[in-house]
Amino acid sequence: MARAYLQEANLPKNFWFWAVREAFFRMNLLPVNIGPRGTKHSEQHLSTPFELFYGCKPDMCVLFKFGSVGFFYRPVDGSRSRTKFEVQTFPGIALGRSDTTNGMIFWCPETKRFCTAADYFLDESRHVRNFFPELVNNGGFELKLCEHGLHGKAIKHPPGSTVTFRLPGPVQPSERPLFTSGEVIGLPMKRGSPYYTVKLQDDTTVALDPAELWEPDDALAGLELIDDPDHSDPTSPVRPAWLIQNCHVRFNHQGQMLRGYLKHTDSYSWCFRQRDRGGRVITDVPIPDLDVYWQHYLLEGLLIVGWDEPDVTLESIESGLSDLVGLIPRRIRWDQASEYIHRGGRS
Fold first, then answer.
1. Do the beta carbons of residue 159 and residue 185 sit within 8 Å?
2. pTM to 2 decimals?
3. What does the alpha-carbon distance between residue 252 and residue 287 come to, in Å, rounded to a whole number?
4. What would you give as a GO molecular function for this chain, any one (predicted)?
5. I want to staple 23 with a disulfide (CB 3.0 to 4.6 A). Which of 1, 181, 184, 316 is the partner?
């Protein structure tokens, strides 16, 4: 019904809410059979949802042609009244009756605002396509999932999908985190909860940050090898071998790469710590999700294991300069590699 309203009025999808609102209101005015099952439709057995709820018959005078062009009286703009030299009548598109006043809700393309007016005139002989040619029905009304603030982007974990995550609770430095799976039943919305709602096998639910969720295919290898003490595959969610106490790392803090080390805090989470020559702590940055999201830190260059800057070895450029092997030094710095290759291997 709502789709038919928009197509008949030649309105775009932006007015989908108002079409659904009007369709819902009018469906409550349709008569239904309230008699025992199997009885014939008769006047005494017919009623409407509106009458059953309010106890009175609906007023059919409130019906109008949805999306019709009309003119409404608007003498006041906010706290300012329009003068007699200003326009007080505007054209608009009728979208529905007001819930709080005896007026009609109009969308005015000139002012780009919704207006509620008690004094109005509907001209059903006019069509939106002729009066407002910029408004065109664009079709394509399909029910799709959307996320506030991320329109046009695919949802990584839609409802009904299975995700893998680490079990909540503290983990000692000598232990490996345990993982489980669940079904996504709620999405993080901009104006609502920022967490995913995941249903476990025992019908309980947990709220999880998007950074804590794994795709089943990505986490499968880690789940199978979780008991392997020698396993340190960086593509699995199992804690790697380098993620230990006092591991020397370089950490991107406020756009600067700082040299420091990893520290396991009393709350069983990680932090990046840096000390001066006197041993005083000068930087202490908590990284609570490092156990689960360490791949992201490595791939984005936010965390680099070790204090030495990466080098480019002979094997990494030998394939492009095979005829100059004798002229290439055995080891060059990474920031000198591009210039060295540009010179063709000449020192």
1. yes
2. 0.38
3. 12
4. RNA-directed DNA polymerase activity
5. 1
